[in-house]
Write a structure and sequence with these properties.
The chain is α/β, with parallel strands linked by helices. Helix content is 35%, strand content 19%. It is built from 18 helices and 26 strands. An eight-stranded mixed sheet has the order 11-12-10-9-7-8-16-17, with helices on both faces. Strands 6-5-19-18-20-21-22 form a seven-stranded mixed sheet, sandwiched between helices. A hairpin with an 8-residue loop joins strand 2 and strand 3. Helix 2 runs antiparallel to helix 3, helix 7 crosses helix 8 and helix 14 crosses helix 15. The protein is globular, with a radius of gyration of 25 Å. One of its GO terms (biological process) is phenylpropanoid metabolic process. Pfam families: ACAS_N, AMP-binding. This is AMP-dependent synthetase/ligase domain-containing protein.
Length: 556
């Protein structure tokens, strides 16, 4: 479709999109003033229009008229969001560069925005200084500090990260430090269908109490440390507590999406050699679930199932143990022995070498048997560092990303929010409708992660209409190829906040290409390699086609 340049648009053109004539006249008057001050076709013109004129309730066709009219003939990938020097200096990376930019870059340092490209290169060429500063900023603590941050080692392709270090990432998630206090809210959630009820919240003190309780219960089962324990549940407050407890107690989480059929669950349990599984059974469904669970577990594994009725007890059937009950109770029953679990007694975290496994995820299995993808104790630090650097996650943020612990973004959400002192927002239900849109409004979510197909559904159904998403500071997007018009629409729901495209891999627990608050962001486009990463395009002969892929640079 062809759009007029902004200086050629009339009040009648605007009214033709469905606006009352008086509203169209007022809009046109404001538009004309912006064009006089900034020109008809500049990125600054678009920033003024998107920030001052384009309200979410205006027809999307008007948003398109303004965007495409402003950038008519501009060229590929015009910026849909431009950083403001004063505001972006207060971001995580901006504040770090303001304090230490000259130390890192010497006389090349100018300001956070102008020097971002050099800082990204510095993060690759000086991993020792870069990663030390980032983990310090995130207040990550080690029970045994690393000997260095990256050591060249022929037995570790690409080098050995954090050699000699011991840590427990769950303990870091639960610690009170400069990033938070015990009274800070760590998890906000709502159940689908309870849209008119107040949000449910869990403070750091309450989260620690519940995680310790489950960790004690796990120890009582008698599994060897390092044993694999599966989670096959929706991503809700219960599964997050269980996840952290497994890690805190020194076991390995086996992440299984709750949407999988029994044979898919069985394959992942077999591959991971899981010794137990947490799952969830709704009230009244025990008989059918018992048979299904029996299909996927052998006689040597334990099933720990949470029932909504919060009953507790012990049931043995053919050698397979079913221990079911709400872990929110003060004890768990195993056999004929009751083990008291005191809520406020701190569980001493199991600290392990950094190369110990903490999580086993899987490839999709669409092209054959799923492949196990293990995370070491260093992987959560990569996830959290990406959130700190690229999505600017910090204390005071409320982070939501509809996902599941069976996919990489589930554990990523846990670590990217909690390790950075932010709150995690969980909606227990479908994110496709107006209930989720209202949750985003009520929870005042500041970073909302999406996949393009989810945005497409929202746009088609217009289910975000009338909800206030102005608290959002940025979006994150991953998983699928993005669409320019759909993402222009998404930005408009939050008064044109940036979308940080994010692409990486389960193997590294994060991204290798993304966006930054210190760079202009174009629609459906990456602007920079992830911090600490160099990217290469490899030819058929295995030789790089170019030396490196450089960050996006936009010049006025």
């Amino acid at each position: 479709m062809s759009y007029k340049s902004l200086d050629a648009i009339s009040s009648a053109d605007i009214a033709a999109l469905g606006l009352p004539s008086e509203v169209a006249d007022q809009f046109h008057q404001s538009l004309s003033e912006i064009v006089r001050n900034y020109g008809p076709a500049t990125p600054e013109t678009w920033r003024q229009i998107s920030n001052q004129l384009l309200l979410p309730e205006l027809p999307f066709s008007l948003h398109q008229m303004m965007y495409y009219g402003c950038y008519r003939g501009f060229g590929p990938d015009p910026p849909a969001w431009i950083p403001d020097p004063e505001r972006e200096a207060s971001t995580n990376v901006g504040k770090l560069l303001e304090r230490r930019g000259k130390e890192f870059l010497g006389p090349r340092y100018k300001d956070p925005i102008s020097s971002f490209l050099e800082f990204q290169e510095f993060s690759v060429s000086n991993p020792e200084a870069y990663w030390r500063s980032i983990l310090d900023e995130m207040s990550v603590s080690f029970s045994v500090p690393p000997q260095c941050f990256l050591r060249e080692d022929s037995s570790h392709p690409g080098g050995q990260w954090l050699p000699g270090a011991h840590l427990n990432p769950a303990r870091n998630c639960l610690s009170s430090n400069g990033n938070r206090t015990l009274d800070d809210v760590m998890i906000v959630w709502r159940d689908e269908g309870e849209d008119t009820l107040p949000l449910k919240k869990m403070t750091l003190n309450e989260l620690r109490t519940e995680v310790w309780l489950v960790a004690y219960a796990l120890e009582s089962i008698g599994l060897d440390k390092g044993s694999a324990i599966a989670i096959d549940m929706p991503m809700d407050v219960n599964s997050v507590v269980i996840y952290l407890a497994i890690v805190l107690a020194g076991y390995v989480v086996v992440s299984i999406a709750d949407s999988f059929a029994p044979n898919e669950i069985a394959a992942r349990l077999r591959i991971s050699k899981a010794k137990a599984i947490f799952t969830q059974i709704t009230e009244g469904c025990w008989a059918g679930a018992e048979a299904t669970l029996g299909e996927v577990m052998d006689d040597h594994r334990m099933i720990i199932a949470s029932r909504l009725a919060r009953l507790y007890g012990d049931k043995t059937d053919g050698g397979t143990r079913f221990v079911f009950g709400s872990f929110l109770l003060d004890f768990i029953v195993r056999g004929d022995k009751s083990i008291p679990l005191y809520r406020h007694v701190e569980f001493v975290a199991v600290e392990q070498p950094v190369d110990a496994f903490t999580n086993i995820l899987f490839s999709s299995g669409t092209t054959g048997e799923p492949k196990a993808i293990p995370w070491t104790l260093a992987t959560p630090l990569k996830a959290a560092a990406d959130g700190w650097c690229h999505m600017d996650i910090r204390k005071g943020d409320i982070v939501a990303w509809p996902t599941n612990l069976g996919w990489m973004m589930g554990p990523w959400l846990v670590y990217a929010s909690l390790l950075n002192g932010a709150s995690m927002a969980l909606y227990n239900g479908s994110p496709l409708g107006s209930g989720f849109a209202k949750f985003v409004q009520d929870a005042k979510i500041t970073m909302l992660g999406v996949i393009p197909s989810l945005v497409r559904t929202w746009k088609t159904a217009n289910c975000t209409d009338s909800y206030d998403w102005s608290a959002i500071r940025c979006f994150g997007s991953t998983g699928e190829a993005s669409n320019v018009n759909e993402y222009l629409w998404l930005m408009g729901r939050a008064q044109y906040k940036p979308i940080m495209e994010y692409c990486g891999g389960t193997e590294i627990g994060g991204g290798f290409v993304s966006g930054s608050f210190l760079q202009p962001q174009s629609l459906a486009t990456f602007s920079t390699p992830a911090m600490g990463c160099s990217l290469f395009l490899i030819g058929n002969d295995g030789i790089p086609l170019v030396s490196t892929i450089q960050p996006y640079i936009w010049k006025k």
